[in-house]
Amino acid sequence: MDFTLHELACLDAVVTEGTFQAAAKKLNRTHPAVHTAVRNLEQRLGVALLDRSQYRVSLTQQGQAFYRQGEAILRQAAALETFCEQLSRGEETDLRVVVGDLTPAADVLPHLKRFFKGWPQTRLHLHFESIGGPWERLLAEEADLIIHHVDKADTRFEWIDLTNVTLVPVAARGYLDVPVTRQLTPEQMRAYVQIIIRDSARHPMRDYFVIKDAPSWTVADQHTKKALIVQGMGWGHMPLYLVQRELRSGKLVSLEGRHFKRSKLDIVAARLRGRPAGPVATALWRYFGEASIGA
Question: 239 partner at 20 to 30 Å CA-CA among 31, 170, 262, 287?
């Protein structure tokens, strides 16, 4: 069946406006041109799409069925036109962002939502990675930007400070058989299961806070790690923002002391230094430079 987008657009205008005259005005066409386009469409289909017996035309039963399909084609055509305009302006159609496991997602995700609402034609590919995963993706140019902590002395990265995260060693109250004092030693803790995050990097580089030769369980994310620790199934270092409530209520106790200390990490937006960036990636970088993100 050979019909044109122009004919579909004329039919759509007549249906939405109610008259050929109003449709012609909406499309900036002449009344005869719109009438001819719809008539040609009906002749090709061999059915009457419009009921012209009243002042305001309406769809016939067959016309309603055809119009539903035609609306979908017009939407796809409009999206394709916008896509082509985006390509002609050099705007990226896809952007890859990796969020690290320690990042306070509740603080960061609303900013991504707000930004991409202003760039609706750019598709966000959002990935969540742990430990070395974000760095590996960025260095392999599999990400345009990461939100994670980085070695700020590494000149391969350029970064923007967003917030910071405090890590605290914790265990469920009653989990340890030894007194929880500031003199607690790694040797004493070697008998207890340590819950650690699995590095999502293909080639892990280092471990954090892991006691050598101690039994350990690995999990994929901080929320699972917290759940196991709260249930008394192990201990580990947790972001303070995730366990503040449990520490206040007494479900968890801090193991901080001479040997187990809290630490603070800067969460940054990072990209590869010197790597060309398109308009959308540049706008996102500028957005994070001006954003106020609280821990």
Answer: 287
CATH code of the domain in which 184 resides:
3.40.190.290
Closest by CA to 150, choosing from 168, 166, 138, is 138
Tens-digit pLDDT profile for residues 143-193? 999 999 999 999 999 999 999 999 999 999 999 999 999 999 999 999 999
The Cα–Cα gap between 19 and 55 comes to: 7
Rounded CA separation 191/218 (Å): 16
State the CB neighbour count (10 A cutoff) for residue 13. 22
Residue 125's SS3 state is strand
pLDDT value at position 295?
45
- 252: in domain: yes
Terminal Cα distance for the chain, rounded: 59
Element of type H or E holding 272? strand 263-272
In a domain, 295, yes or no: no
- 25 and 37 in a single domain? The answer is yes
Q: Are residues 276 and 145 in the same domain?
A: yes
Are residues 283 and 247 part of one domain?
A: no
